[in-house]
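Appendix B: complex inputs.
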Amino acid sequence: MEEGMSVRARGGGGGTKCGRWNPTTEQVKVLTDLFRSGLHTPSTDEIQKISSQLSFYGKIESKNVFYWFQNHKARERQKRRRIFVDEPKAEGFHFSCQDNNITSTKHFSEISNFNQVVEQPEKVKETLQLFPPNSLNESESEKLRFFAEDCKENSAFSYNIGPEKDHPTLDLRLSFL
Amino acid sequence: MEEGMSVRARGGGGGTKCGRWNPTTEQVKVLTDLFRSGLHTPSTDEIQKISSQLSFYGKIESKNVFYWFQNHKARERQKRRRIFVDEPKAEGFHFSCQDNNITSTKHFSEISNFNQVVEQPEKVKETLQLFPPNSLNESESEKLRFFAEDCKENSAFSYNIGPEKDHPTLDLRLSFL
DNA sequence: ATCTTATGAATGAACG
DNA sequence: CGTTCATTCATAAGAT
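Resulting structure:
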């Protein structure tokens, strides 16, 4: 493992198979260097600058830089997390680090399913107006409130939407909108 | 680290783990079609209706639809933004160097036509015929695996990264950060 | 060739 | 909305 420098210098060379970005050693070095020096989350502008600079060493795009930092940081983090768990040197306490389902219900829990649906104007003129004006005033973040999470802890029973995939007529005409 | 699995797009069938929403291919297709047809920011009602319809294909909640549109829109822009800087010469299309074989990857460029996708009338409601019998119906798409970047053979200047490649002129002055 | 590891890429979820 | 995080998928490179 590690970034044990291996020979990957082929970025600028010849037939680089263009499946996915394959950074050159120089590119990796610079990126790693930047990371080590404290740049963990470059801004968009920085990403573009870095990408631009690194393009000297070989084919690269800003999204590659973006992903690189994303991944590097995440893996650093996860590595650290793993060590923390795998190496409980501190005998004092235990840690049940992962519940594997901690993701939910952070602030979703605050909403009641009852809504502040202000009012549903029945402006039915001409052709059915299906677009309540009030929804236009909603900010996106407020919309989220409507969708109160309630991840039914699943499973054992609850879905009945079986593997019924054949579904002949895709009647999702969506004219319902 | 993990095992290299290859299963994707498991429909609403099996033991759907309630970790996070895993859209079926049908769901993704419909959502994508809606988006491409101009619905970029669905209202609360639309979200609920879409969710309701899509629930036929598998477990789904309104918030999933909400997030899907948020993410898709944001990433569409992000990509567009990036293309702008990475490829100043806006060409109408790009080509793929993707060799044959390997998992599908039939990326029909979704973002390539950026000179026409710009802000359509946001309200695509009422009877919108979304599924023309013979539209560009990609019969089956594994997963949207686009992001086709053109593989410039970086022919211009090949940086032969020799053993001691010290960038002459263009030195990485990382002080630009 | 097959398994394993490292890492590029994608995306659902969520934050500020 | 633009960003960031967590997880997962996919794949190139090593190891066996």
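Residues 6, 8, 17, 19-20, 22, 41, 43-44, 70, 73-74, 77-78, 103, 140-141 of chain A lie near DNA strand D (CB under 10 Å from a C1').
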